[in-house]
Amino acid sequence: MAMRFDITDMQLMVHISEAKSLTKAAERSFLSLPAASNRVKNLENNLGTNLLYRNNHGVTLTASGEAFVRHSTSVLRQLEHLNDDMREFAQGLKGKLRVFANTTAMSEFMPGILSKYLMRHPDVSVELRERLSYRIVQAVAEGLADIGVLAGIDTTSNEQNNEQLSFIPYRSDNLVLVTPMQHPLAEYDEVAFTDTLMYEYVGLSEWSAIHHFLRQTADTLGIPLKFRVEVGGFEAVCRMVAAQVGIGVIPETVAQRQQTHTPIKIVRLKDEWAIRQLFVCVRNYEMLPPFAQDLVLLMQEDALKNSSS
């Protein structure tokens, strides 16, 4: 049976989900109430299932209604991206890449990589966004990102759940603890994360992926993470730590570089999640446009260069 619905139907259902009111959803969709009600009834008839529970207090979604809204939201988002891409192509752009990366990749590796890449591809634009690693996998699987750079993911499990996903080893960069030179934890070469939670932390701003990761990890242990101050970058974290404001968790490459001119102590973390292999994640490498494959190849060249140096 052919299922007949259009963009207006999808947008109306999304508005109903948000407003919990058919009247308000109709207004947001620029429809009259009878027209909106008729669309929903026709949609339910075509799909063969009720999408809404109707009562005196408004409307709520049924299970099938929630599924319809979830898929509609994804489709509408894709259409927005399509419209944005077409607008840029009309202005002379020949390619656009959406790259999602975790905090380490964003701050440490992507600036240098993209500098080289964009010099080679002046007619390509790159949209780079920071996300938690599991969100990156979801985005690539759903087609919201072309390329992901992530760590801390069970790639075997994700390949089984998303058969089209490929995880290409990129670079290694462990997370380490940094402390002031005069600090109780500075006496150790290695500590467990749980043993650090009695002390106050210097962290990145709450928008950063690593901020959310550390907070979630602490919550899992049942111990709140105490951020005394939040700053905008890893260098600022190290300067605050050196000033004895608190301790911090940052990538080892950053810590080693900052240690050459900032008085901080690097302490290894015993936790398995601190040992990190970064991966480049793509949905189907062979289906990527050539200019996207070029970015993956450039990252592989970067990884090979750094592994041999």
Summarize the structure in words:
This protein is of the alpha/beta class and 309 residues long. It is 47% helix and 21% strand. The protein has eleven helices and 13 strands. A five-stranded mixed β-sheet has the order 4-3-5-13-6, sandwiched between helices. Strands 8-12-7-11 form a four-stranded mixed β-sheet, with helices on one face. The chain has a two-stranded antiparallel sheet with strand order 1-2. The termini are far apart.
What's the total number of strands? 13
Uncertain segments? none
**Nearest-integer average pLDDT:** 87
Structural class: alpha/beta
- Write down the secondary-structure element order: HHHEEHEHEHEHEEEEHEHEHEEH
How much β-strand is present in the residues?
A: 15-25%
Strand order of the largest sheet: 4-3-5-13-6
Radius of gyration: 24 Å
Task: Tell me the number of helical segments per DSSP (H or I, 4 or more residues long).
Answer: 11
What level of helicity do the residues show? 40-55%
Q: Summed up, what is this model?
A:
By secondary structure, the chain is an alpha/beta fold. It contains eleven helices and 13 strands.
Ordered list of secondary-structure elements with their pairings:
Blueprint: H1 7-19, H2 22-28, H3 33-47, E1 52-55, E2 58-61, H4 63-90, E3 95-101, H5 103-120, E4 124-130, H6 133-141, E5 147-150, H7 155-161, E6 166-172, E7 175-180, E8 190-191, E9 201-204, H8 209-221, E10 227-231, H9 234-242, E11 248-251, H10 252-259, E12 264-269, E13 277-282, H11 290-308
